[in-house]
Amino acid sequence: MESEQITNPGAYFDSYEDLKVHELMLTDGPRQNAYHNAIVGNRDLFAGKTVLDVGAGTGILSIFCAQAGARKVYAVEASNLARLAREVIKENNFQDVIDVSECRVEDFRLPNEEERVDIIVSEWMGFFLLHEGMLDSVLVARDRFLKPNGLMFPDTATIYLAPCSVPSRFDRWNSVSGVSMQCFGRALRHQGSDKPEVLTVAPEHLLHEGHVVTWLDLKEVTTEELDAFEAKEVLVGQRTGKLQGFCIWFDCTFPVGEQGGRIPNDIVLSTNPVAPETHWKQTVIPLPEGACEDLEQRDPIAFELKMTRNKDTNRRYDLQLTLLDAEKEEHSLPCECQMTKCILMKAHLEKMQVDG
Amino acid sequence: MESEQITNPGAYFDSYEDLKVHELMLTDGPRQNAYHNAIVGNRDLFAGKTVLDVGAGTGILSIFCAQAGARKVYAVEASNLARLAREVIKENNFQDVIDVSECRVEDFRLPNEEERVDIIVSEWMGFFLLHEGMLDSVLVARDRFLKPNGLMFPDTATIYLAPCSVPSRFDRWNSVSGVSMQCFGRALRHQGSDKPEVLTVAPEHLLHEGHVVTWLDLKEVTTEELDAFEAKEVLVGQRTGKLQGFCIWFDCTFPVGEQGGRIPNDIVLSTNPVAPETHWKQTVIPLPEGACEDLEQRDPIAFELKMTRNKDTNRRYDLQLTLLDAEKEEHSLPCECQMTKCILMKAHLEKMQVDG
């Protein structure tokens, strides 16, 4: 029905699923609050400034910027959601402040080719920060369009890893209404190949507070630096429990202006299991069944994590986790673990300090 | 890796999503409890009996039947989950009781062609009971394989409808972190075409306790009787609130044996909004924005619901809801609504009773 399509903004969309994804994001409280606090709570950073919103989606971040006093916002959205964004912007009466461009940011040009923007805002994060995210596009935009002293929202991102228990993939299947379904659990662990999976990890199932895999300064990092990350470490279990996998999460921080009184000093969007749940949840790499073990407090856990860009699909990342022999790996000093050499070394170092 | 595939049951599956659907069902407490209570709690009905499990999935209902003392269980599953079901059955040591057949029940034959089973168990229910369910296949199995006095688990099913508020599709979008996003809400209401959607309706958003659309006796109902259902009614709002849509749900009951002491008298699997949430949630037909209204207590709501089999896809059902003019429709007598004729009629009937 032609007439209906004209009055129905939703009629633009090929995929209802796209809208559901945006519903999920818009109803993600920690995500919304972090961006709202970082932008609307920082009027002094935005007032009179020009902003580029990379992957604007429904336009909500652009509207935050307009509410915070931005003089001009360029909202760039590649999908046909751009048309809905225009309607949302009009609904909020910011059509004179916000210009929506329906194109990839790689194809976007500012009206004045010489112009540079003061601020780039973007919610580009994917699973475990980078997987299916769009940081590459944000960096292209930064290098082309941001003033040398311009601001990035967010401006840092950190990836963490911790050993954990994964009862939803192991213990739960020991008895389902009195039926043993361990082979179902085995199949669930990504068809027995122990692939990473997006899951919610309860804080009590973390066996460690989290090791920093990488910290990114988003003003400086290059696309090439995103090709591969490696972490090789001996961690010390901080809690007893079943070691059944590794949990990966991230957090992002935002620039903070002078309005310290109105907002927390550090604005952090955290997907840590101890923080309120977000739609990113956590990413879990389950261990093969034979590698699971009961972990005593202060047991060492030696591993190597490789996170590499997928060769075929640039926006995807492959995770490879290898358990190592803690006896053979070098421990950081002093090490809190229970291995004899570390206990002796720690005692020695303490003695030296006392003696010193 | 050839060797890995042999030891990994999950390696059979084309679709990881299939496993996730079964995970959802196996962790659906009300579903699991209803079937567990109905089967394992009814040993006197199952001991020594032969059972056919239609659409056995992971095999858990077949195992319940074996636990309840069934002599022989025929588990029929068309997908390659049948192979995982065999492993689950072996894990529970019931391989001598349960025979798994990887085929459609329409192609299934009992080992002895003359044989009939005592009981059919199946979890065939789809959204709003019938949509994408497999009751047709269960009825084929019943007509071919069930003894005349055999039992069906479940044995009745009822579909309900109630007017309701739908804040997640209307009010929520009035302000998202201070941004008006009503046009997003409009798009979400199934791309503006107000199509039915699977949603969770909070009990407090129901404006009526539920009108019975249809009640099915699963021992008797025929496939043809499932082709279309109609309900034309004037309901009386039982609560004030915003009329924004209609909510549909179902419940199923199971036969009850002599072991009354061990289980509740009526075993019901209910997807009523007032019952604990299930993976079926509820199905909501949002109203067009212009048809939404504030409902006073005892306001009449006149509607017609048509539920008809989709012409192209037999297992799908189309819902069509039409709001009618309560002034013009016939009300049931006595009617509790606020319309003058009903108030007068009710007063008259009450007077007649007193006088009589």
Overview of this protein structure:
- The structure is a homodimer of 356-residue chains.
- With 356 residues, chain A is an alpha/beta fold.
- Chain A folds into three domains: 123 residues, Rossmann fold (3-Layer(aba) Sandwich), CATH 3.40.50.150; 169 residues, Hnrnp arginine n-methyltransferase1, CATH 2.70.160.11; 28 residues, no CATH class.
- Chain A is built from nine helices and 16 strands.
- In chain A, strands 6, 7, 8, 11, 12 and 13 form a six-stranded antiparallel sheet that branches. The first copy, chain A, has a five-stranded parallel sheet with strand order 3-2-1-4-5, with helices on both faces. Chain A has a three-stranded antiparallel sheet with strand order 9-15-16, with no helix packed on it.
- In chain A, helix 6 links the parallel strand 2 and strand 3.
- Chain A is globular, with a radius of gyration of 24 Å.
- The relative contact order of chain A is 0.13.
- The N terminus of chain A is likely disordered.
- At the A-B interface, helix 2, helix 3, helix 5, helix 6 and helix 8 of A face helix 2, helix 3, helix 5, helix 6 and helix 8 of B.
- What is the count of helical runs of chain A? 9
Give the ordered list of helices and strands of chain A: HHHHEHEHEEHEEHEEEEEEEEEEH
Helix content of chain A: 10-25%
The H-level CATH homologous superfamily of the largest domain in chain A, spelled out, is: Hnrnp arginine n-methyltransferase1
- Oligomeric form: homodimer
Radius of gyration of chain A equals: 24 Å
Using the coordinates shown, work out and report the CATH topology of the largest domain in chain A.
Hnrnp arginine n-methyltransferase1
Please state the overall shape of chain A, judged from the principal axes of the Cα atoms.
Answer: globular
Number of domains of chain A: 3
Largest interface: A-B, 47 and 47 residues
